[in-house]
Structures are given as C-alpha cells and as structure tokens.
Amino acid sequence: MAICLHTRTAYARVASISAKLLISLSLVALFSLPLAAELRVATFRADATTAPGEPLIWLTPTAKVEDPLWIKGVIIADGSRRYVICSLDWCGIGSSIHDLFRAKIAHAVRTNPAFVAVQSVHQHAAPYVDGDANTMLRRLGRPPGLMSEKFLQDLTDRIAAAAEEAVKRLQPFDSVGVSAVNVERVASARRIIGEDGKVIVRYSGSGKDPKMAALPEGAIDPKLRTITLAKGGKPLVRLHFYATHPQTFCCDGRASADFVSAAREAVEKETGVFQIYFTGCSGDVTVGKYNDGSDAARAGLAARLKSALAAAPAATRFAPAGKAGWRSADLLLEPKPVGEAQALLNDPAIKDGVKLYRAAQMAAFAARKRPLVVNSLDLGPAAILMLPGEPMLEFQRFAIGLESDKFLAVAGYGDLQPGYLCTDRAFIEGGYEPSASNSASGSEARIKTAIRQVLGK
After folding, report:
1. Which of 75, 106, 158, 204 has its CA 20 to 30 A from that of 351?
2. Taking the model in full, what pTM does it have?
C-alpha cells in the first residue's frame, strides 16, 4: 500500500492533496468511535537515520551515525476508524513534508491523514526540514544543501510499509494505565530572570559554565507521564511524555537520537514492551544545568531518564479502556514581518546557507494559507494532546490544568513551521525563543483557545 513517488511533480501533488484533506477535516470536529466497538492496537517502527551527506540541523551533512534515528508509532483501531500517533527521532519536520509523512502513513493503514499525528522528539543531532522552505529556495535557484527528495520518498515509503505491516498485527486491548513519576536532574529552565529583571538564557550545553550550572532548575514540569495499553494485565505498549530539550550536542555531522533514545531503547530491550517517547512543551526547557557536552554528562542524563521510565510500571493505575475519540482544531497564527528575511533571500551576495534556510522558513510561514492543526486523542481514562511548533512550557501547564476528568499527556513538535510558540509575556521579556519564532506576539490566546476546543473545555 505504500505510495511510490518518483518526481517532484508527484511529490507536490501528494502534499497538496494531503493538505486539502487536513484542512477540510480539522474544523474542531469530534470523531468518536461506536460505543460497542472493540479497541485494538498495533505498534511499528522504521529506521529514519539519514544517509551519508543528507543534512542534519541545519544543513550539516551526515558524516557519522552514532546511533540510529527511529520513527516509532502506535495504531489505535476500531471497527470504524484507525488513529495513528508517531514519534520521530528528528529535530523537526514542517509544512508539506509534515503533510507527506501523514499522507503516506494514512494511505498505508487505510485511514484519513486527519487521524495521523507525527510528532518529532526534537534531538539536535538529527534533521530539521521544512517542505515549503525547500520549495522556496529551489525556486530561487540557490538551494543550500537541502535534503534530497529521493531520500524523503524512500524514507516515507519505508515508514508506510512498516505501518501497513503493523495493521496485520492489530490486537485487542482492554485497559489503559496511567502514571506520573518524577524525573530527577534532567530538565532545567532555559529562561532565568536575573536580579536586574532581564532574561538569562541557559542553553542546552551551558552546564560547562559553573555559573550557569549553579543557577536553580527554574520552571520545569518534573513529571514523566506514561500511558500504557494492556490486555488481560499484560502491557502491549507504553507511551511516555516528558518536557525537556533532548539535546546534549549538535551540528558536528554526527547523527544521534541522543540520551532519550538511549534510555528508551534500553528499557524496551530489558522489558520486552514497546516504548514510545514524546517530547512535551519544552520550548523554554533544556538540560543546560546538567549538560557540559561530555560523554559522562550524556550518560548520566540517559541513566536518570531511564530510571524514571523503568519506574513507570510500578506506579501505573489501570482502568477499563472504554471508548476512543479524536478531536482536531484549526490554529491560525499571525506571522512576524518578513521584510528582512525576504531581503536576505533576494540578495545574491548572501552565501550563508543557514541564514538563507532560516529566512526561507520565516518567509514560507508568512506565506502559508492553510491552518496549523491541534489534535487530541481520548483513550478511556487518558487523553493525549498533540501540538504543532515548539511550545513553551506554559501551554502544557495550561492544558493539564484544564483537564480534571482525565489523565492528560502532552506532545509538542508536530508541524514545526511556526517555530517557537511563545507566551505574550515572553515577547515582552525578550530572550532567545521570541527572537527565533516565526509567529508574532498575540499567539498565546489563539493557542489556548485551540487547546480548549480539542479538550472539550
């Protein structure tokens, strides 16, 4: 059932079709399953490691593979519909490439792209690609080392084949378990307000500076939230959600899924239970207090995260699976002014590929006509909220504060074209996140409205 695309025209056609499907079906509609239907589940994975020479973030060619990049997914099925949620070990995918992933997976499992969510884990030793930006740069005739269409087509065909095969292994589940355990000494705030009232930015590698390492953890969510699907008391898959940048190094040609994958895959190997990890709202949360860029620091972060993953089963409380349901809401954000970005793109003297690529991302988002989409999936006693962009922690706190009836887990990093999703306060305070966002101040209310809509609040 995998779709084979061999030309740029065919790729654009599929991306266009999938985008139209997504727009037509995402208007805050609730798609609920029949009351008496039996819920079934299947898992799949596919190797998403970049080939030699293919770009990592931003345009650094892959020179060495430290460890594999994976896409891991879960299919939730009923007699009526199939829903798919995937976790991709990439820094991010945006716009038409995000649509392409969803369209191929949907075709493979015989569902609609509106019922497929692909959320990146956001490792920085992995690719960050925006389809509309790629198209814009190719039209300008100056593409700075973009990811090849052949690699993208081969990869998404491989993912689709894995998802199609998984449908044959769908099996019933009768209970949903939930747990929340503390993660010790991993996350730390990137934004610290100093005594002078100004923002101190603590990046992911700032732990090498003793002064930065000595600053408090700051505003974080210390909880690893886990949802377990089980049959007759036997766990079939565990979905983990935690809010921090999963980044200890970047931009040197090494491809890696970093410390989160090391922890995730170790627990899966030890327990025999399929493990999927999602990054929550961590636009302003990193590992900077605890990471000095050394192998020892990376190993320590992996060990402490692994301890939390391993503690989740004992803390899990099970309830009957009940029903499943999917909600989607459109999200339209105001873009930033793009005069400066457009000037860079139009200046033939600019040779810096990273500057060109980031300018193209900003310009492409400003030109975007279709809305972003916020999704949620109800699973009996639990719910999963899936957001686009790189949301700040406030949006996770807001969502969890709304949901008093269900255990809520939050995944960020869906369609990453808007970049950072910032609060209005962050734009006033300044700092890194609002400066790197493609969306303008005033987005907070729109994002929170969409969250309310998909949570039925």
Report:
1. 204
2. 0.92
